[in-house]
Write a structure and sequence with these properties.
The protein is of the alpha+beta class. The chain is built from 12 helices and 14 strands. The longest helix has 21 residues, at about 270-290. It starts with a helix and ends in an 8-residue tail after the last helix.
């Protein structure tokens, strides 16, 4: 028998009697109502401390495996009606506390710990909590029930309750296999579903009933989505032997122009180079707009300007003074690409930046401003 097993067995057979300091005639009192070590080395404590004269210096907790934790400050306090009644307090009592003390995993989870509440004078009060619940589910329930819900805060749940509950919940789940949990939960209102691998998923009754998977060319794969009652996507076909990448794209519905665009993008170096090219072109357009007396960005905030769909608007006072119809006609005479309107926006010019070339600045000067330097009417 290992030392850890011997200690665990001794604790189960010879439990220490609970010990607390709960004498209303004394100026200080304390109790550990709950002490639950967890497999990750953490220790959850719940109890109360009545110390109106600030006599306590620290709480020292020891495990049967030699571990020791020290607590100098009880950060999370809340009222305890039973303690207030014991000491006859008429003010607001905040003697209750919960703590989570992280630590190093020990050879086994202790069933019972001991503690000393050390006083500033050098004295000490010995405290012994009851043994922790042996079942992980019972220990989890004890942690969750140690704090009245009305005193729970997001910080307390995240830093105290959560770190204690997570390993206990994981240990409880490990007591059964996945399939055993599924059988146990079958037919209940619990929201539980197994995590399936790709060999299991197609055979699950739920997936079979919904037609989630289909077989194409001898290969099981997810069915096309979305699927509606009157609009069901066609079953895809497996690629033919000898088919090229362009053949496959065409079979998937890509137009010749779209395939040509993909080929062109690959010739530039793929997505990374498209992004670099778009950002470079936006910088060129931005430099031109800064010196333009008649053009500006549709989005005034630079953070909202797209580098792939650059939208410009006419800012010349002679143009903005015209009616909407006249502005649209004027813009159509100047711009020959993608004239349009966005909701609640002026007439504007949209430039697809990653399709512009390195001579963008010169082309702006020649085609829009003109070779002579005069604006085109």
């Amino acid at each position: 028998m290992s030392a850890a097993s011997a200690v665990s067995e001794l604790q189960a057979l010879a439990r220490l009697p609970r010990r607390q300091a709960a004498d209303a005639k004394r100026p200080i009192g304390a109790s550990l109502d709950l002490a639950i070590p967890t497999s990750d080395g953490g220790l959850f404590l719940a109890g109360w401390l009545h110390d109106p004269h600030a006599l306590a210096a620290e709480l020292v907790v020891r495990t049967p495996f030699g571990g020791e934790r020290r607590v100098e400050r009880f950060a999370h306090r809340f009222p305890r009606e039973d303690v207030a009644k014991l000491y006859g307090g008429t003010g607001i009592d905040r003697s209750g506390f919960v703590l989570h003390l992280p630590g190093t995993p020990e050879p086994a989870e202790a069933l019972q710990v001991t503690a000393e509440l050390r006083l500033a004078s050098g004295g000490a009060l010995r405290l012994v909590p009851p043994p922790r619940p042996r079942a992980h589910a019972d220990a989890r329930a004890a942690v969750l029930g140690s704090l009245p819900p009305r005193f729970a805060t997001p910080e307390l749940l995240e830093t105290v309750i959560g770190p204690a509950v997570v390993p206990l919940h994981a240990a409880h789940l490990a007591t059964r296999t996945r399939d055993e949990w599924c059988v146990l939960m079958e037919g209940s209102d619990a929201c539980v579903a197994p995590v399936l691998d790709m060999d299991e998923a197609p055979e699950h009754p739920h997936n079979r009933a919904r037609g989630t998977f289909i077989e194409v060319g001898g290969v099981i794969q997810p069915a096309p989505a979305p699927r509606f009652s009157r609009s069901t996507p066609a079953t895809p076909r497996a690629p033919q032997v000898g088919a090229t990448g362009e053949d496959v794209l065409a079979d998937w519905g890509f137009t010749p122009d779209a395939i040509d665009g993909l080929r062109w993008a690959l010739s530039l170096g793929g997505l990374t180079q498209l992004i670099r090219r778009s950002e470079q072109n936006l910088r060129i357009v931005s430099e031109w707009v800064e010196t333009s007396p008649w053009a500006g960005f549709l989005a005034k905030d630079p953070a909202n300007r797209s580098c792939t769909s650059i939208c410009l608007r006419l800012t010349d006072p002679d143009v903005t003074a015209l009616s909407e119809e006249a502005q649209a006609a004027f813009a159509a005479r100047i711009f020959r690409v993608d004239i349009g309107r966005q909701r609640n926006a002026d007439h504007h010019l949209k430039l697809v930046a990653f399709r512009l070339d390195e001579h963008l600045q010169r082309r702006f000067d020649r085609n829009i401003v003109g070779e002579s330097g005069q604006r085109q009417a």
